Every structure is written in structure tokens, then in C-alpha cells.
């Protein structure tokens, strides 16, 4: 016996319900009693209360089941004369039909029960009859005490009902028969987003993967089963598969591009499918560096197609055009990693030459950033010359009507309009050996022509004022081969300027072997404000480089004069520095003086500066075009950077030495002064050069004249130099102030020996002269940005910079009696005293020994008395 309890408050009445149907005669019965539970009593039970106002209230559901009993739902359709049948369970027709169906079903299942004791006991219950152009029968079969599997029980029920259908004289339609289990999900088809898949039968609560199709390649689980399903049920109603998508979301643009790159097939249909997908992905703005690398590599792989179709080529053109709109940083990264961009553009050229174009026909594809046209070399009139041109007023876009191709009579190539880009190939160039296709390309800009080092696709000088870059479309041509080889007769290229106020045009072509623009084999024939015409002795991609800054460039003659002045000044300085080093280096007494050693270090640094400056100038034979590789150019720039900073640092050391000698006076001795000074004057500049190079990387050196670019020049050179100059100016101001006090100080001034005063003034004069020389040259350099003063200031700047070493020779050799005398000893009669030189006489020195340290230290002093000025110089014993 089973008792179900239900209670409500504030309701008018309530009833018991079973499987969604009201149970008769249960109004307001709190305890629903099932005396002896039968198989058909297995169901969901609940109470439904009806308040006076408002919606009805339903209790929780209670599920009643009989343990170890299988439940099956049997569904089929009876056909025949059932037009008057009503779904009224209380009608006699309904009850009669139920008894008839149940009786025949029970009769057919009694025979199997007697044949085998494994079948268990089968109970049949007609659950519902519904009219539907016949009668839809919903029955339940209950099998107890069976040792069969669920599938065997299904087969048994199916077999029994099929026999009923055969003996029903056509009233039982066997095609409508369904036997559904509550614990075994049947074979099922499911329509997924990627096609229809199958699920085989499975037990309740089990998981299964679909069979048949697999996830497409553009999903994150490509190659795996499309769906998974769980067999869901409650042991009362038929269980069913609940499928879910197993493919996941679509791959990102990067993931899809990498997949296509790794799995690109060579079959014609496979190639086109991949290119079709790539055409859409290449417009995705969310693609990253990895995806861009893969996209360019896919284009490169298409170059290996032996017989590309015109559809293949059209897709490649569209893709390359889309890739040209990507962020320039992504394109440069792809090129720097593995040259992917260059390999892709070369692959485009290969497939243009390989595509099948019948004789006397052309293939043409126009995209937003790229135009291509291909003609068979066997076409009529081609061997008499061919002209290809883009005609139109808008250089920022292309249109099919703008493309013109003419043969035979080259003069008819332009049917009117402004020429954006054109190339004319004469009959001498197209000889009998020309085979295959003749291909033409026009790129809207230079986005896909990335120089090694990623220097913003610029060639030559870009010092913050000038900006030399491509100022035209880029037009290319190929005759049967993508190789760049000399032609029998030069081709003529005409290109329209994009920016009208640009100056200094230079005809160049793209050299794939170096990934750079080169002018070899190209000459400028005609130029105007709007167009430039070039002639080149080979075929590849051509452009015109121009200075788009709007700043007029100096003439070649002026540049030659500047170069000659630099060579002369640097040569004089090198000779002067070598003589200065020889004079002081061969005089044992002089070279042991501290201020002389500072001078010699300065001379050595300047000597390297001038030598490398001459090397830099000699390598810059063609202004606006790099002649050496970025590695060597960077080394030269780094040496110039270091020696310039180091020379200024040694000037700072001389200033500190003067400060100790004149201003500090007492307790002015610094142990190991030269070692510490060398660490500062050479170590700090080296650290600045290293730090600037690490931060700037590819933007450290200018590829044209191998010196620092704008921001490394400002941050790594001009700012440290300004600091040193400011420090020296302060020190020299203090020294001058001190000397003025000595001069007017009465007793103290009189105690200073005449020779010492002359020595101080001589060294101070020399130091001030060199300081002003260094400071003045760079101060003048700042004025070179003023265009009105540019030429004159440049001349002064070149002279002062190049003659610095020579001025040091004059200050420290010719004007010094001791060094001049030493030089005269070696040169004999070639050098005589001049009345213009100052003979200060040698310094009188006394040897004293300082104690208090581990070793005795020799120093020279002017006087042992407590005077305002001491000169501390180490001397050799």
C-alpha cells in the first residue's frame, strides 16, 4: 500500500493529478491511498489547489516506481473508419477500443512468456487514444523479472506488435510503430550547424560522440566529432539524446590563418577553398603578427602551384591588396622574422607568369590597392612593343576603366587622361626568346616593400627635417621570368607624383636580394612638378623616391664643397693631433704631468673621431642612398658617438683639474686621479652609447651617412654634451673669479711667483680656448635648422668642427715654449721662435713627499707656503 499526503491552506478545493491528468474522485482528499500498486500506477503525482482568487497552486511532484521493472512506451496508428471516434475516456467507444487493443496485445505476449522463463512478465496498459485521421495509440509495456537486456526487450515488444499488425487486416499501420525505452536512448539523427550527424543507442545518463561528419577546419576542434550527447530520462518517460555542439566557437583570424598555413593542400579545389577563406580573413582588423606571418606564407606557398587558375590568381590579388592595408608594424614584423612579405610579392609575380592566358587574350584583376594584367607573349603585336598604363586623376584608388594596354603602335597607349603609372617596353626588349606571359603590376603604395631593419620604408636621410620616401605608385613588369636581368633596350617608366611639393626625385627599383630600393641601372630622363620619367635596363618593380618634407636640398656642387672642407679640416686636425701626441709622448718630463696626460687622452679620442668621420664621409658617396649594411653603419655611428662624448668628457676632466688647482687649493690632492678620470671619461660615454643603442635598436643609426638619427642624437649626444658644457662653464667661471681675487688681493697675490702665475694663466687660456672651441661648434650646429642662415652656418660649423684638432696643436704645441723647444729639437731649422708666442718660461717646482698613505706619493708644488693657489702635478722620478 502507498499513501500520498497533500495539504493546502486558503484554497477552495484541491485535486490529485497523475502525469498531468486529474485523478477522478480525489477532490479534497489529503491522503491518496494506492491499495495494491500495479505497473500502471508508476507515474508522477501532485496536488493542485484552487484558491478563491488568483492562479492555481501545485505541490511538488512525487515519482512512484516499481523496482526492477522496465517501462516501454509503445506508439502506433490505427487506420480505417474512425471518423466518429472521440477522445472521451468515459465514452463506450473509447473503452471498447481500449479493451480490444489491450486484449490483442496481451494475447500476443502470452506465447513468448510460456516459451522462455527469461522473458519475465509483460504488462500492457493503454495510456491514451487520440483521433488523428485514424487513432493514435499510446500504450505502455511493463516487463518484470526479466533477464533480457533492454535491447532484447525492445526487440521482443517490436516483434509482438508487428505480429498484431499483420493480423489486423490493415487497421494497424506497422510503419508508425515506435518502441521507446525509458533507460535506453535509441539511434537518433541530429541536424547540427555543420550537417546531419548520427547517435547510436546508449544507456541512460551515458555520453556519446556523434558519428559521420567531423567539425570543419574553421572551428577550434576541427577534425573531432561534431557533437556529443547525453542520454537523459527519468525512468518513466522515454529517454532521449540531448545533443550539444562539440566544435566550439570559430577559430580566430590568427588561428585560422595558421591552420591554413600548416595544412594547405596542393589540389586545385583545396587551394581555391583556402584562398576563398583567406580573402575574407585578410580583411579582419583583429589579426596579429602571427596571423600576418601565416597569411604572407600562404601566399608564398601559392607560388609553387605549377598551373594556377585565373580564379586562384584573382583571389591572391585580392588577398595581397587586403594585406597592404594592415598596420605597418605588423607588416614589418612579418618581414623581419622570415622575409614573409618579400616572399609573398615574389610568389604573386610567379603565379602571374604561370597562369594560363590564351593567345590574344588578357587576364586582369583590379583590387583596392593592387592592379595586375597579364598577356601572352604570343599575342598579336606584342613583339612590336607593348605599353601598359594606369590613367586617372585619383592615385589613391584604381578602376578597371583606368587600365590601358596597347601593342603594335605604342603611341596609342594613352587614350586620354592623367597618367598615374606607365611602362613602355620596346620591340628590341621583347625578342624571339621571350616565352610565356608578360605580367604587369601596380601597387598603390609601398606598404609591402619593407626594408631590412624596418626603417619605415624610407631610403636615405630622415633627420627630422627631410623625409625621403616613395612618392608614386609602384609599377612592375616581367617578361616570362621573375629574374632581374639586363635588357637589350631600356624600358621607359612614367610615374605621377602623389605629393606635388616634393623635391629631388630619384628613379629606383626594388632589389629583392637586399630588400632595399636601388638606383643601379636606372636614370632619370624627365621630371616636372607632377611626373617623373625614368629609363631602366632591367624589369622589376619601379618607383620614384622624393623628399616630401618641402625643404629645398643643397646642390651637388655645394655638397662637394662641404665635403672638401671637411676632408681638409679633418686632415689638418689628424696631423696636428699626431704631432701633439708625438711631442708630449716623447718628452718624459712633460708626459708625466697630470694635465699633459689629460691632454694626451683628449688627443687620442679626437684622433679616432676624425679618422672615423673621414671613413663615414668616404662611404657616403651617393647622398640619399645607403652604401653599407646596417651592421657596419651602426658600428661607425657608435664609434663616432663614443668619441664625441669621450672628447667632451676629457674636457670636463680638464675643467675639474683646473678647479682643484686654482679654486679648491687646500686638500686638493685626489689619489689615483687619472684612473678615476679615465673611468669617467671613457666609461660613462661607453655606457651612454650602449644604452642608447639598446633603446633605439633599428632606429639608432641613419642608413645614409652612418650617424645618429634624430632622437638618439638628442637623447644620447646633445643632452649629455650640454650637461658637460654647462659644468665646464661653471668651473671656468669659478676659476676666473678666483684669479681676479688673487690679482687684487694684495699680499697673497704678491706671494705668488711670477712663473706660477704665468703657468696658470697659460693653462687657463688654453683651457678656455678649447672649451670655447668645443662649445661654439655645437652651438653653431643648433643654428643649422634656420633655413635663412643654413648655408653660412654650415660652413662655419664644418670649419670649427674639422679644425678642432689643429687648434689644439696650435694652443698646446706652438704656443708653449717647452713643447715648441722639444719640437724644434726634432725639426731643426724648420721651426723658430715667433714674437707672437708667449714665453712663460718653465714652472719652478719643488719635490715634496706626502706621508699618511701606504706608499709615498710625489707631487709638485709652487711653494711650501700657505698660498691661495697650488698646482698639483705628479712627476716622474
UniProtKB/TrEMBL annotation:
InterPro entries noted in UniProt: GAIN_B, GAIN_dom_sf, GPCR_2-like_7TM, GPCR_2_secretin-like, GPS, Ig-like_dom_sf, Ig-like_fold
The reply to whether Transmembrane helix figures as a keyword in the UniProt entry is yes
Residue stretches making up the GAIN-B domain:
394-552
Recorded source organism is: Strongylocentrotus purpuratus
An annotated GO cellular component? membrane
Task: Give this protein's Gene Ontology molecular function annotations.
Answer: G protein-coupled receptor activity
Q: Where in the cell?
A: Membrane
Residue ranges annotated as transmembrane are 561-584, 596-616, 628-653, 673-695, 715-735, 764-785, 791-814
Subcellular location, principal:
membrane
Looking up SUPFAM superfamilies in the UniProt record yields: Family A G protein-coupled receptor-like (SSF81321), Immunoglobulin (SSF48726)
Which residue intervals define the domain G-protein coupled receptors family 2 profile in the entry?
Answer: 562-816
Q: How does it sit in the membrane?
A: Multi-pass membrane protein
| PROSITE patterns referenced in this protein's UniProt entry, alphabetically | G_PROTEIN_RECEP_F2_4 (PS50261), GAIN_B (PS50221)
Q: Tell me what this protein is called.
A: Uncharacterized protein
User: Which N-terminal stretch is annotated as signal sequence?
Assistant: none
Sorted keywords for this record are:
Disulfide bond, Membrane, Transmembrane, Transmembrane helix
